[in-house]
Amino acid sequence: MSNTFLVRTTTQGLVQEAYWSDPVSLAIPYKTSLFELFDETHKPVFEKTFTKALLEKHKVFCSHVVVVEEELELCFFILSLDQNVFVLALDYLKELPSEFQEQHKALLMRMIEQIAAMHARNSLQNSQVVYSHFEEIQRLNNQLVNTQRDLQRANKKLETLNLELNNRLVKDPLTALISRYQYRSEMQAVIASKPDALGLFAFIDIDAFKQINDTYGHGVGDEYLVGFSQRLKSLSVGYPVIAMRIAGDEFGLYIHDIPAFDDSFLADIYAQFEKRVTDEPLQTSCGKLYISCSVGFAVYNRDTDDLYDLIDYADWAMYCAKKNGKHGWRRFEPLSYAQRHEKS
């Protein structure tokens, strides 16, 4: 599955714990506010469902809402319990045949109820109570397995559509960069030519992009993203570069077969990025707008040889750069990453 997450938030919608998030950037603890996922048109729909859940606790509420990111529609399941709100979001429910949708929705509702109940009773020492929860989860899991068999039959009907869709999603429709659906495959193809070589992944976040949309409108925001992407695509650093749009105002660069790296090398890469991408303002229909970016670096075959971890590590380094004052860069530091959940 893609474009899904299960999180625990405050009553104000700030993510406190992400049980999973695909992509990672969709729901980041202590950074992502669920209300910021929507534009002004769709935010009231989510706010209405979220408020219902706050007013009527211990009951799961469901709604389909379009998030800003590529106008993607997600199905949200929301349950409020004391001061915690549990939110499950997924993008595939409406693609299922109608005869399976209600059955699958009911199972998902029961699953989130069980997860919330286990969280609330986390401190209980009564092993029989804990065991009963696991028995219930196992029973639900068996039901999900049966549902999965139904889904496999339904997926056969979607194969032709998926093949056509994959061909369309190689390039991001707005920016023409490698899309979020394809960039891992592109990276794997480059790495396969020299699997033991070092590679550098740069996770790039445009600082305060939301203010551009709020001030000038989404039309100008799209102009800004297109202009930024054209500069990013033309960036030359002396090595082959894959430029990609990860999500919304988040972008990535992957450089493979670098001879070695240190802080001096990273500073040089960032300096070239500034010179060619961010130093000059972008021309839009509302005039020239300045660019500021926070960048995080992680190294393939040094920090990790797993692409999912590589992107996650660079994302964390970018978050550290943004937290440090924005408009700068940071390299991945394993110690700070390991301690990221220890602060209360």
Query: Which architecture name of the largest domain does CATH use?
Result: 2-Layer Sandwich
Strand content: 15-25%
**Largest sheet composition:** 5 strands, antiparallel
- Kindly provide the name of the CATH class of the largest domain: Alpha Beta
- The H-level CATH homologous superfamily of the largest domain, spelled out, is PAS domain
- State Rg: 22 Å
Give the beta-strand count.
Answer: 12
Give the CA-CA distance, first to last residue.
Answer: 32 Å
Structural class: alpha+beta
How many domains? The number is: 2
- Percent of residues in helices: 40-55%
Whole-number mean pLDDT: 85
How would you spell out the order of helices and strands? Answer: EEHEEEHHHEHHEEHEEEHEH
- Provide the spatial order of strands within the biggest beta sheet: 2-1-5-4-3
Unreliable spans: 123-127
Rough shape?
globular
How would you characterize the overall build of this protein?
With 344 residues, this protein is of the alpha+beta class. It has helices at residues 43-55, 98-120, 127-168, 183-193, 209-216, 218-233, 263-278, 307-323, 334-338; strands spanning 4-9, 15-22, 61-67, 72-81, 84-90, 198-206, 241-247, 250-258, 282-284, 287-289, 293-300, 328-331. The chain folds into two domains: 4-163, PAS domain (Beta-Lactamase), CATH 3.30.450; 183-338, 2-Layer Sandwich (Alpha-Beta Plaits). The protein contains nine helices and twelve strands. The chain has a five-stranded antiparallel beta sheet, with helices on both faces. A hairpin with a 4-residue loop joins strand 3 and strand 4. The radius of gyration is 22 Å and the shape is globular. The two termini are 32 Å apart.
